[in-house]
Amino acid sequence: MITPEFEIDILASQDSPPAFAWDDWYRGVGGRTIDIPEADEYMHKIQTEQYPRFEGEISSHKQNYSPEDASKLIKLKAIEFGADIVGICRIEPSDIYQGRTVKEEFAIAVGQRMKWSEFQNVPSDESAIECLRIYYSLGETVIKLAEFIRSIGYACTVEHPVGDSNVLHIPIGLKAGFGELGRHGSIIHPKLGPLFRMGSVLTSLPMEIDYPIDAGIAKFCDNCRACRIYCPADAIGDNRTPEGGKDHLGNDRYMVDTGKCFPYFAEHKYCSICLPVCVYNHKEWAKDFTGTPTKLFPEIAMETPPPPCDSVSESQKHRYPLVKRGE
Ligand code: SF4
Ligand code: SF4
User: Fold this and answer.
1) Distance from the CA of 298 to the center of ligand 1, in angstroms?
2) How do the domains of the chain map onto residue ranges?
3) Residue 224 Cα, ligand 2 centroid: separation in angstroms?
4) What is the DSSP letter of 23?
5) Average pLDDT per run of 10 along the chain, which is 327 residues long?
6) Rounded-to-integer distance, Cα 290 and Cα 117, Å
7) Residue ranges of the alpha helices (H) in the chain?
8) Ligand 1 centroid, distance to 231 Cα (angstroms)
């Protein structure tokens, strides 16, 4: 059976947020102040070695599979290329940044776990380097997966975890069954916890899709406030808020005050405190999946936060609540 490749244009929803204006945010807080050669080297390699490999030739020998077989094949390949988790979902307008258009029907979400051993002290040089290492490593996975998809005759788009993206990684990860949205704004996977990062490849190769999960994680967040307590910028909300829309279970989302988080993140080695302090599945991470002996809870440096900074224009700004401003 010949399975058709859909020719489509999916327009962003009118309610979609604008793409995150990283450069404007950095300018607003005085530029990139994190100076760690190993982290800079990863960023340099991402920009010079990986960005040019996003495009490639599509084989004229198109292979045909059933959606079930295509899904199995793609997942096997993603794991072979370094993914720890992989899921597939159909792209909807709400998954696309404001004003952008996507030509593909499906997103293949891939995730890689970060090393718990590098988050024993946060923030630190080690944790900052690990943040960039995982982006480089994920970049290799999505680029190789895209090359494979082209080799079987299908067009695709690489959505690298660093840089400009057409799609929102979090809703795609939720729909692809990666976990539930934590109070800290990151997805919590039932086994990996929140200490993983995501990238994706978009394609119209017809594939069987995955579905969101309800493992009780979002409910757990309602009774746990560890990330809220340890956030040095006081940026994580006490309550769910309708301002952020709904999560995949229909709950109002918890939202992070980006205007408070970003200045801290930009000045303190990509902060990341809210991830390793998250109590969800701590015991699993403590083994570091490799047997490396680690502490159950990190040492945390909570410096006095810089003033909040909402340094991008309204039209560029992601919606976020102002958490305890002016108190
Ligand atoms: S990255 Fe740091 S400042 Fe931002 S929300 Fe997490 S703990 Fe708070
Ligand atoms: S620390 Fe607690 S409240 Fe915060 S995301 Fe993790 S489980 Fe949820």
Assistant:
1) 15
2) 1-327
3) 6
4) H
5) 61 85 84 89 96 96 97 98 98 93 96 92 96 97 98 97 90 96 94 93 98 93 93 93 84 90 92 92 62 81 88 73 77
6) 10
7) 22-28, 37-45, 67-80, 125-151, 169-175, 217-222, 226-230, 258-267, 282-286
8) 5
29-50 burial: b if 16+ Cβ within 10 Å, else e: beeeebebeebeebbeebeeeb
* Atom of ligand 2 at shortest range from CA of 217: 7
d(CA 102, CA 202): 9
Structure tokens at 47: 């920009």
Q: What is the dihedral of CA 237, 283, 42, 299, to 10 degrees?
A: 70
String of DSSP letters for 55-85: --PPPSS-----HHHHHHHHHHHHHHTT-SE
How much is the pTM? 0.92
Write the residue with the smallest CA distance to atom 8 of ligand 1: 231
Give the residues surrounding ligand 1 with Cβ less than 6 Å away: 184, 231-233, 235-236, 256, 261, 264-265, 271-274
Residues 6+ apart with CB under 8 A from 186: 170, 194, 274, 275
